[in-house]
From TrEMBL:
Gene3D superfamilies: Tetracycline Repressor, domain 2. SUPFAM superfamilies: Homeodomain-like, Tetracyclin repressor-like, C-terminal domain. PROSITE patterns: HTH_TETR_2 (PS50977). This is TetR family transcriptional regulator. Residues 40-59 bind DNA. The lineage of its organism: Bacteria, Bacillati, Actinomycetota, Actinomycetes, Kitasatosporales.
C-alpha cells in the first residue's frame, strides 16, 4: 500500500523578522536622505533598534539595502495613487496623491542613488520603476480622457518636475524645505489642469527620453 507523500512545509518569515526588516528599511531611508548612501550600518542598526547582525542577515551588502529602500519608496508612491483611484474614481485626485506622496517619501533625494551606488538595471528595481511608470501613465490617460488633464504633457514631464520641486534648494535641508514643497507642487498640479491656459514649447517628455544616456 502506498503512503501519501507529506506536503513540503513552506517556511515563512516570522512576524518579528518582517517587522525588523521594515524598521531597518525605514531607518535607512531616513538616514540616506539626511546623510547620503554611505551611512555606516552600525548607525542604521542603532536607529532601527536592532543589532548589527540583524541588518547584515537581511541585507548582506550596501547595494542590497539601498536598492530595497528605493524600491520600497517607489512601491509606496504607486500604492498611494492606486488607493486614491480606488477610493474616489478620480484620476486627477490619484495624480495629486502620487505627486504629494512622492515628495513625502523624499523620492528626489533617493532616486539619484540609483545611478551612483548600484546596478540600475537590477530586476527588482526595474520592476518597481515599471510599476510606477505604468500606473502614472494610466492615471494620466484617464485624467486626460475625463477632460481634467491638459493634453500636452507626458509622464516624463511629471516625473522631472516632481523631482525638481521636491528637492531642497542648495544650502537648505529637507526638513526646512517641507514647508514650501507641497505648496509649490500644488501650483504645478493646478497648471496641469484642463483647459490649458498657455501653449507649451516643445513636445511632451516621455519616459524613454529620460532614460536615454
Amino acid at each position: 500500500m502506498q503512503t501519501a507523500t507529506p506536503a513540503r512545509k513552506v517556511t515563512r518569515p516570522r512576524a518579528d523578522a518582517l517587522r525588523n526588516r521594515e524598521r531597518i528599511v525605514a531607518a535607512a531611508r531616513e538616514m540616506f536622505v539626511e546623510d547620503g548612501p554611505d551611512v555606516p550600518f552600525d548607525e542604521i542598526a542603532r536607529r532601527a533598534g536592532v543589532g548589527n547582525a540583524t541588518v547584515y542577515r537581511n541585507f548582506p551588502d550596501r547595494d542590497a539595502l539601498v536598492r530595497e529602500v528605493v524600491c520600497s519608496v517607489m512601491d509606496r508612491t504607486a500604492e498611494a495613487a492606486e488607493r486614491a483611484l480606488a477610493e474616489t474614481g478620480d484620476a486627477f485626485a490619484a495624480l495629486e496623491r502620487f505627486v504629494h506622496t512622492a515628495a513625502d517619501e523624499r523620492i528626489s533625494a533617493l532616486c539619484p542613488m540609483v545611478c551612483g551606488t548600484f546596478d540600475k538595471n537590477h530586476p527588482d528595481l526595474e520592476a518597481a520603476r515599471e510599476r510606477v511608470e505604468r500606473l502614472v501613465e494610466e492615471v494620466m490617460r484617464r485624467a486626460r480622457e475625463a477632460g481634467r488633464l491638459r493634453p500636452d504633457v507626458g509622464v516624463g514631464d511629471l516625473l522631472v518636475v516632481v523631482a525638481q520641486l521636491s528637492r531642497p534648494p542648495a544650502g537648505t535641508d529637507c526638513l526646512r524645505g517641507d514647508r514650501f514643497v507641497h505648496r509649490h507642487l500644488q501650483l504645478f498640479l493646478d497648471g496641469l489642469r484642463a483647459p490649458a491656459r498657455s501653449v507649451l514649447c516643445g513636445t511632451a517628455v516621455t519616459v524613454e527620453e529620460l532614460r536615454r544616456p
